[in-house]
Fold:
Amino acid sequence: MTAYLLNKLCHRVFHDVAFRDAVKRDPAAAIADWPFTDEEREALLAGDVRKLYEWGAHPFLLAHTTRWGLFGLSPALYAERIQGACDPQ
Amino acid sequence: MARLVAGIGVPHSPHYPAAIAKDGPEETARLFRAVKAHLDAARADAIVVIANDHFNTFFLNNFPTFAIGVADKSFGPNDQTKMPHYDLLIETTLANHIRNVAIGEGFDLSVVQEFGVDHAMLVPLHYLTDGIRVPVVPIWVNAFVKPLPTAKRCFALGRAVRSAIDSLPQDTRQAQDTRQDLRVAVVGTGSFSLEIGGPKIEPGKRNAVPDLAWSRHVHRRMAEARFDELVEEATPERMWQAGNIGGELLNWIVTLGVIGKDKPRYIADHNDKDGHAYAVWRWD
Structure:
């Protein structure tokens, strides 16, 4: 259940301020204990929202990342990267 | 006994309260005031509010298709929306009765007994009431976790809610209310076209309104009370084409089910910029 964990992460950064601050400070360390695959972890840390979306991350949750520039994502960069993404099956 | 006195549909954008004062000069403030005047005149004793949760009351570990809040009280916003904090009273007797009637009619509503509510319920109540002192009954509809309930099912849920309102027993009425009927209003809320965080968003922004042609069409269907056609047309594919939040139309369709078949007493012109709709039905 890849998408579930991605969604859980986005949900947590929205509702848990301490966790959000940890992700802001050191994203790799903050998600070190989360059991993502290497590919997922890499995409997250690179802010590759197109991949995350195509894997099933919910766009409403995914977009929370831009509120605080998490994973390097400004709204402009997010909007640029999400263009052309395919809807998950 | 209870009686439906008003049906209302409005948007619920979370950025409104911080940007637009209730008595402000903006078009949005003016439209909310126009709707509020109707709701004030209808003198509702309780408001059934129909909205979708945005992963604030619920998450994917347990996400209901349809749920009802049956508690003494609630609060909000629970999603960091910049607006006043509100403590809410729940019209528990009516909420319980709706739950019972709906389940009897085949709608297995999830029951929620300790909860906060997000902007989707609070933004409309903030603008449409004076401090949300009127008790509410929250009903949640899944509007953006696929697969969505069908429009037909949502309309039928609205019919079941109406049958509950019409059949509230006299002896279960709230004791402090001495009038003949509990006067009930229903408020449904959401966008017809909206994309957040998906591929249809505009460059540099978090969102977009990708399908004004659809929102204009939905608006016309409501103005003409052609609910049957709208329910047929509001397929999952069509709503998705209008944006990944386009399923919020389902909140309105449940509300239309409560309303039944009448034309609105008031409907603001379609907004060609954001596609938002403001509509009022009255029976008092």
Q: What stands out?
A: The mean pLDDT of chain B is 96. The first helix of chain B runs from residue 16 to 19.
